[in-house]
Amino acid sequence: MNNKILLVEDELLTAMDVEDTLREAGWDVDGPFSSVRNTLRYLENNLPLCAVLDVRLEDGEVLPAADVLAEAGVPIVFHSGHASHDQLSSRYPDASFCDKPALPQMLAQAVEQAIDRVRGSLDELQAVRAT
Amino acid sequence: MTLNQPAVTTDIEEDATVPVIGIGASAGGLEALRDMFAAAGTSPGMCFVVVQHLDPNHESMMAQLIDRHTELIVKQCEGGEKVEADTVYIIPPGHGLAIMDGHLTLTDFEQPRGLRRPIDDFFISLALDQTTNAACVILSGTGADGTTGLRAIKEHGGISVVQEPGTAKYDGMPLSAVGTGLVDFVAAPAEIVGRLQSFFNRHKVDKHDQAEVVADHVDELCRVLRTAVGHDFSGYKRSTLVRRVERRMHVLGIAKGRDYLDRTRTDRAECEALFRDLLINVTRFFRDEAIFRQVAEEAIKPLVSADADEDGIRVWIPGCSSGEEAYSYAMLFAEAAETLNRPLTVQIIATDIDEQMLQIARDGSYPNSAMADIPARLREKYTVPHKDHFTIASHIRDLIRFSNHSVVKDPPFSRIDLVSCRNLLIYFNDKLQQSVLPLLHYALKPGGFLVLGPSETVGRFDNLFPAVNAQARIFKRSNASPSYPMELPGGRGEAAPRRADRDTSEVTRVVKEGGLAKSRLMERYVPASLVVDGEGLIVAAYGRLGRFFDFPVTPMDTASATSLARPGLRNTITPLLRQAKEAKRRVVSRDVKVQSDFGTVTAEVVCDPLADGTFLFVFQESAPFAMFTDGDTLAESDGDEHLEAIESELRLTRHRLRSAVEELETANEELKSSNEEMMSMNEELQSTNEELSTVNDELKTKVDQISVVNADLRNFLDSTDLAVIVLDRDLRVRSFTNAATTVFPLQAGDRGRSLSEVASRLASPDYLDDAQRVAETGESIQRRVLSQDGRRTFALKIRPYRLASNEIDGAMLVLTELTDLLSMERELEQGRERLDMAVRTAGIGVWEYSPLTGRAILDNFELANFGIYERDGAVDDLINYVFPADRRVVKEKLHDASLGRGDFEATFRLQSATAGLRWVRAFGRLIDDNGERRLIGVTIDVTPEHQLAETRDVMLREMNHRVKNLFALIAGMIRIASRRYEKVGDMAEDIGSRIAALGRAHSLSTSAQGEQSANIKDLILATLAPYEGHAQIHSSGPVLEVKASAISSFALIIHEWATNSVKYGVLGPEPGNLLVEWSVHDHRLSLEWTEQRVTAVPHIESSGFGTILMETSARQLAGELITTVDDNRLKHELSVPTSVIELDE
Fold first, then answer.
1. ipTM of the complex as predicted
2. Fold (topology level) of A4-130
3. Is the pLDDT of residue B393 over 80?
4. Which of A65, B76, B567, B705 is the most exposed place for a label (fewest CB within 10 A)?
5. Is this model's pTM higher than 0.90 or not?
């Protein structure tokens, strides 16, 4: 089963920290990707279990990649110093938010919960199918 | 009222009837009423009804208040009571009062408050119901209520008393009543009841015994009146005359007709009073309004529309009294002319014999209470209200001429289109009526209209006046020609025959008074006697006259004593009569031989003049009768022959005489007819004369007015600041104002001089040509002229001088000095420009909003800057330019401000295709502009301020983001380090120094402007700053700016190199120097760190954490790190793409 978390973060030191945190929590980490371009290229062939996204990247905002993920039903956790959530939460109603600087446990917890939500609905779906 | 005229003439009520006194009072009336009733005693034998003006909304305390001061019974009227003696009835509030068959009834007001006349209304009903048994009392009050009622009371034979104006708190009502001239008593309140009591007591006693006696003196009274006031009332209705004379007698306390007659002979004032009493009649505007409507439809409109040649309609209103009827007609004619769209060409001649009434009519000023009689529509158009009275509009007033003229005495007017003779004939007896109607026929044009009062008819003259509307008493003049009475009724010619009649009747009475004995005495025993008049005609005869006179068997025309006398006596009578006349005493002729058929009688003839101008002849035989002898007869026959010859000559002479007489008579007839023509011409002349004198009077007043206006004009010309010069058609100075002398040095003597001869202080003489042109063409010219010194500017206006006929007769120069005005105008213009500039510079738009119409007006600025197209548009449309989210607030604030709940103040966005989105701030204030409320305000464009604020917000967000990222970086660094270090102290020291290096690097970036960046050299030096002095450090390279996002990575890498050098290299224990160089090649930035040591470079085991940081940082920059060692030289090289730096262009 897919156990991969996509990490998109242009600040490499932060990325390393998050990567360590997620690995410690038992996930595989793809990335970190520091640009939208690279992220989109990755998504052409891969679909992670969950994605942790910084908003502002070298080559612009992460939104095109987030759109692909949302379309595919991949849960998203935004990890950003961005002040306002309004714009994002209206565009991605199911996404979670973890403001920078965040405690590693908080981030791991947010990822866990996001995955649980998707799994829960999948289970439900399966249960419905079973009956 | 006249409908009830017959009731007036009915017999007087029984003695038991209680007199009813109506009392009218208003402001200040309570005090007067108290005084009046306090003095009334217990039983004055009268009934009092008090009509007081009361507030309809409050219960009245009147009854209680009066009850305390009187012994009479005081009741507030409830309606339906039969009036009783010694009782006072008080009007209740909110109702009118009337009396019918001795019962009081309450009425509802028809008029709105302020136009009600409860006193008049009650007095009129009282006059109708109680006639001679009624009295009215007018007490203190303002206005004129009661005055009309007083006339009604008087017309029906009642009595009027008015409170002495000096004792009244408010003298308006008493003075108005006294002004009618009809008041019987003017007394203080306490005396009023006493006066009334004595009047009615006399009234009761006199009722039966005096009536006939007065009637006996009426003729004599008429004669006295005629000499005193010049009007003959003998043709007036006898009953009315008697009634009014009696009333005067009661007022004066005179019991006997003879005494009153004597009084009038000596007292001229009393004659005037009686004259006024006889003329009392009630008049009011539009009396019998329904009839007026019919008259307007059936007579006035046809007349106005038929007046094709517009030569004017002539209306005669005889007996116009105080003018109300005449004004009513004038208003109706004006209305008709307006409705039919015809010019108003009517001329109304209103006449009366009462000069006092005519004066009221001429003034055309009536109490406000009379306003109610005029229909509301006409009231607004034709009356001018004042404080307590109103006047008739002057264009209506000018249609009427009031003049003193008697229908009975003076010649009638002629060529009249309409005669309104209402309620005048009723006062005339039948004979006078019959003589007046043909006069009216004479006055009217064929086809003209006659309007009579409701109870008047044309009688037997229906062939002269066929009815147009019998019910409304409108008649039309027929073409039948009546025989006009050439001798006017009541005229001077009548006096003589009347006197003769009277004399004859007195003589006859003397004869009759004799009694039987006397008559027998006279027939048989009295000597033959005759009474003759001055001409010798027999007036009376007594005794046996057969011997002296030869009475014919057939009745003769003449009864001349001379012609009837027998021969002998015939020659005696005439001289004797003449002698007696001359001597004025008794004369006697003796031995007169009278020849009868059979003999001669000798007699003595006495002629005795009597006191009344007649003569008494007495014949006494003085010798016995002598029979004729034959000789006598013979002699007689001789005489006869002679006599016959004489007589035949006489016959011839008589014949000649007759033919001469006949000729004379024919001539006389012709003269008579000429005379008649002259008479009728004279009458026409007289009526023209009347009119002329009226016109003359009016012209006199006009001349007075014009001289006042002229004086005004003179004063105006002398005092005005306008320089005006009036020129005649030859440009000669006609007049000028004082102000004109500053420009043209004119002197008083210069009038009549040509303007071209007058010096002028104007620069150019063009004004002369201009004036000439204006005088010729009649077109005004206006232009500016300068004074000779060029310092003063004038506006010169030249206008044609027009005469009343609109003909041009010269020109008028008006000079207005403009010097100050022009400089003011210039200043104003400058001020306006400055303001305009200020407004434009400040970016202020001005607007105006009218809450009433919902429209707003915008200025150019608003239009240009906010992309709005409507200059003047409905606010509901303009609101569409407001950004949708802001509309509600703007509307609410605008609404509040337009209701005056404070100023309008709002900041909002405007959106339009041309100007885009603009932030504006608007401020407005409600201004009351002549009753129209408008919101005037300004709009300021605040878009730049808003943009600045937005930029600041963006930068704040950016900073926030960056700080958070930095925190995240530091947190990550700490966590990564925590996995590598064993000792917390080491870790803290390492991380602390790194954070400090980051801090120094970032402090460089914050000071930079715009897109944040840091100079690479500064960055390197700042990072190395703690190690300065340890070794010789050289740094060199081009000036480059490192992007903000790359600063941290650069700083960490350089810090790491420095740390290692401090630990193991030239910055630490080893001597040597450090060279830091950078350059750009092939789109890459290369940074070289070279340490030149004295000793060889040892192999250094790099710490894991430092390496990780460096590698990560290099990767972050997408760069490569290469470290090379060559004996004593250590070289670190960092190569990154130029995307991390800002190339200095």
1. 0.75
2. Rossmann fold (3.40.50)
3. yes
4. B705
5. no
